[in-house]
Amino acid sequence: SVKNRVALITGSTSGIGLGIAHVLAEAGFHITLHGLLPMPEGEALAAELRDKYGCKSSFSNADLRAGDAIAALVGDAQDALGSVDVLVNNAGIQFTAPAQEFPPQQWDAVIGVNLSAAFHTIHHTLPAMQAAGWGRIINIASVHGLVASVNKAAYVAAKHGIVGLTKVVALENVERGITCNAICPGWVDTPLIARQIQQQADAGNLDYDEARLALITGKQPMPEMTQPSSIGQLVLFLCSDAARTMTGTALPIDGAWTAQ
Ligand code: NAD
C-alpha cells in the first residue's frame, strides 16, 4: 500500500519531476520536493501539493553538485516526513558541444548532477530502506542511456552510466524488498526541451512550432512528445506491488525512438 509512504523526487520544481510529484501526491504519497529554487518559492510549491492532495510535503534546495549537500538532503527529508521509501533520481542538466570543444567544467557538471548525485542519494537512502525491508528507487535516465546522439558526450555518458548503476543496485537488493529501475524517455514536454527548441528556432530562422516538430521527428518516429504526467504514471506503477519483481530494467517511453 502507498499509504504514508514518502517519496523524495530530485529536480521536482519543474518539468518531469514536478509531474511525477503531482501523480504520486494524488495517489497518496507524501512528497519531498527538491530543486534549485529559492526557499520561499519551493515552499510555495510544496504547500500547493498539500492543499491540492492533502498529503504531507517538504522542500529542499540542496545543490546536487555538492556531495555533503546530498547527505543533508536525504537527512532533512527523513527528518521532515519520517522516511524516504521511494527515491526518484530525476534532476538533470544538458550541455551540447562536440567532444573536442566540450568545456571540461561542463563535463564535470553534467556527470555530477546526472550521474554522481544519483549514486550519493542512493548511498544515503539504502540503509533505511534495507532496515525497513521495502524501497523503490527509480532513476530518470533517457533514451540517451541506450543510444547516442552527436554533441552530447557528457549527457550520453551520464545516462548510460545511470543505467549501469541501476542494474547494480537492483542486483544487490533482490532479497530486500527493494527494486531499482531506470526510465528512458524520448522527448518530454518540459522547460529543458523548450530551451533546445528555442535555440533551434533562432538558429534556423523557424517559428517555434516548426522547430518543435523538426526537433521531435529528427529523432522520434512518433511525432508527439510524452507528457510529464505519463512519466509519473510509470513511476506509480513501479511503486506498486504488481511491479515487485520488476527490477534492474531500463524502460523506454520514447515513441519508438529506440525501436529502429
Ligand atoms: P527541467 O530543466 O524542467 O528540470 C530540471 C530539475 O533539476 C529542476 O527542478 C532543477 O532545479 C533541477 N536541477 C538542475 N540542476 C540542479 C542542481 N545542480 N542541483 C539541484 N537540482 C538541480 O528538466 P526535465 O526536462 O524535467 O528533465 C528531468 C530529467 O529527465 C533529467 O534527468 C533529464 O535528463 C531527463 N530527461 C528529459 C527528457 C526531456 O525530453 N525533457 C528526455 C529524457 C530524459
UniProtKB/TrEMBL annotation:
GO molecular function, one term: 3-hydroxybutyrate dehydrogenase activity
A Pfam short name: adh_short
Keyword terms, alphabetized: Oxidoreductase
EC number of the protein: 1.1.1.30
Organism listed in the record: Exilibacterium tricleocarpae
Name of the protein in its database record: 3-hydroxybutyrate dehydrogenase
Gene3D superfamilies: NAD(P)-binding Rossmann-like Domain (3.40.50.720)
Family, per entry: Belongs to the short-chain dehydrogenases/reductases (SDR) family.
Lineage, broadest ranks: Bacteria, Pseudomonadati, Pseudomonadota, Gammaproteobacteria, Cellvibrionales
Swiss-Prot/TrEMBL GO biological process terms: monocarboxylic acid metabolic process
